[in-house]
Amino acid sequence: MKKEKVLLGLLGATVVVGIGTSIWFAVANPFATEDKAVKEKVIKQKVEAKIDKHLEKYTPLKKEEISKMTIDEKKDMMGGDGANYESNLMKIGQGQGKEEYPEDKAKAFEKELIQLASSASYDKILNKVKDELKNYQFTTGTNTKIASIYYDASIMMSTLTAPDFQKGKIAKDMRHPEMMVIGTIMLPEKERRAIIHDFESLSPIVNGEVKILNHEVLRGESDDPMLKTIQNTMVGAERVHKIEFQVEKKNNLIAYVIEYNNATLEYYGMYAPKDKTYHYKTIQFFKEMDKDFDKHQSLKTDGDK
C-alpha cells in the first residue's frame, strides 16, 4: 500500500511538473520572450539597413550623417512629403523671366519627344527643346516631364561616346520612366545590369524601334501581383510605373520602373505578359554564360601555359 501511494505521489508530481513546465514554456519562458525580441530587433535592423542604403544612394547625405539620424527621421525622408517630391522634379529654363510652356500643348510635345526617343533620335529631342527654351521655361506640371526627357536625351547622347563599361552607370540616372525603358533596351546587354534591379528580368537582344504602348502608375490599391512583389522587396516603392512596350514590331513586354519620393527612378525589370512566351533570355542567363566563358578562357590559358 505504501508502495502504491509512493508511486501515485510520484505520478501526480510528474503531472504537476509536466503541466507547470508546459505553462512555463508556453507563457512564462523568458528565453522564448527573449528569442522573439531578438527576432524583432533583427527585422528592424534589416529594415533600417535597407533605408540607409536607399538614402545613401538617392540623397546627398553622407553615410556618417545618416547614421546620426533616428529611424523616424529616416522614415520621414523615405516617405517624402509633396514639397520634397516637387522640389526634386526636373526643371529647365527657369530664372530667366520666361513664360511657362503652355500646359495644353505640353502633353502632345511630350508624346512627340518620346516618339523621337523610340528611334534613338536624341539629337532631335535636344534641338526641339532648345528651340522652345528660347521663349519658354519648363518647370511645372507636364513640363517637368519634358525637362526630364531633355535631361535623359543628354544622358543617352553621352553614352554614344562613352566606353561600354560606363554606359549603364551613366544611363542609370535617367529621370523619365519611358525614356529609361527605351534607353536601357538600346544599351549593350551587359551594361543593362547596372540599371535593372531584378536579374530574373528579361534582357532582349533586339534592333529597331522601341514603341511605347501603354503607361500606368500603380499604387498601393492596385491588385497587380508584381507591384506587391516590388513593394515587399524595395523600400520606398510607393509609386511604380507599369509600361507596356513593343520590340521587333511584334513582341510586347511589360516594364516596371519605381519612382521614389525624391523623384528618382529605379528600373525593377521587364517581363513577358502572362499569355506570352518569348525566346528572350534573362539577365541571370547571360551572367551564367559570362561565368562559363570566363571559366573556359581560364582553363584554356592554363592549358596553353
TrEMBL record:
Full protein name: Uncharacterized protein
